[in-house]
Design brief:
The protein is α/β, with parallel strands linked by helices. It has one domain. The protein is built from twelve helices and six strands. Strands 4-3-5-2-1-6 form a six-stranded mixed β-sheet, with helices on both faces. Strand 1 and strand 2 form a beta hairpin. Helix 1 crosses helix 8, helix 1 crosses helix 10 and helix 3 packs parallel to helix 7. The longest helix has 25 residues.
């Protein structure tokens, strides 16, 4: 199970994805932020890429919070220049995929692509293992959890709401920053290890996604982060979660001071001693869980 959380984090992070001694904050996906110099009330929602906005259609507390906010903050707002940059970052330089993964993984990956998507592994040879992993999880998402027609993925929904209602829309990171964290901080060898681990699990990818999906719905965020710590070394966790959370806090503070703000980031960014919630508490803010289920 712990190996799949690696894939989950990467997909959640790429598409818009320290427990240590303190688990007080984070085991929920929806929070209200008040106190200090917050203007009115701001809200923090932990997203999951598998889900569309159908997930929140029956949650008036979320839509009310979104409607009442003057600004919306998400991890990344893509524009027309993003796709070429992402594609360039996904390419291997001086080698091909089959030279960087084991024969066993190559065989399993080839079979999975053919069976689940009707694709040939040869089409993926120019791509680095991290890009391949991301594509695999995206294919699995669309196959096992297809979005209802006309529905948007959660992060996109929040962004489109901001645009349609002429609210300020803030991106916490640029595409260059996300590319740097995802690709430049993972050697090709390390990327290959993560891809090997994905296909070395006893459970199928569908079963793996089911476990993560159910954990999210149960709001077991702290447990998911704990598993992530078993998959990554401390330096990788710092790059993927901790450092980014800390860099985001000044932006969140400025926006919440200016106006009521709705913040939507990957759920794994909420939990732990270096999670957004605890960092806000450390800054003197009041965070209160809002129950989305009875």
């Amino acid at each position: 199970m712990k190996k799949i959380i690696s894939s989950f984090i990467i997909v959640l992070f790429f598409f818009q994805g320290l427990i240590a001694q303190n688990q007080k904050y984070g085991n929920s996906i929806f929070w209200k932020i008040t106190g200090k110099d917050v203007t009115g009330e701001s809200y923090l929602f932990g997203t999951y890429h598998l889900l569309s906005h159908a997930f929140i259609d029956t949650m008036p507390m979320v839509t009310d919070a979104l409607n009442s906010s003057a600004a919306v903050i998400t991890e990344l707002v893509l524009d027309e220049t993003a796709q070429p940059k992402l594609m360039q970052a996904s390419l291997l330089n001086g080698s091909v995929l089959s030279q960087n993964i084991s024969a066993q993984t190559s065989e399993k990956l080839s079979k999975w692509l053919a069976t689940e998507a009707g694709l040939e592994l040869s089409s993926f040879e120019p791509l680095n293992p991290m890009a391949v992993m991301t594509i695999v999880m995206s294919i699995a998402q669309q196959k096992y959890y297809p979005n209802p027609q006309g529905y948007l993925q959660l992060d996109s929904y929040f962004q489109e709401h901001a645009k349609a209602n002429k609210k300020e829309l803030i991106s916490l990171e640029t595409v260059e920053q996300q590319i740097d964290v995802l690709f430049n901080n993972f050697s090709v060898q390390r990327q290959s290890e993560l891809l090997d681990e994905l296909f070395s699990e006893n459970e199928s990818i569908e079963q793996q996604l089911n476990m993560v999906y159910n954990s999210y719905l149960a709001q077991e965020i702290n447990g998911m982060v704990t598993l992530a710590y078993e998959s990554y070394n401390s330096s990788e966790v710092e790059q993927l979660l901790d450092n980014r959370n800390k860099a985001w806090i000044p932006v969140l503070k400025n926006e919440m001071k200016a106006h009521p703000t709705f913040i939507a980031v990957g759920a794994l960014h909420l939990a732990g001693k270096n999670g957004i919630l605890q960092l806000l508490v450390d800054e003197g803010y009041i965070v209160e869980e809002i129950k989305i289920r009875n």
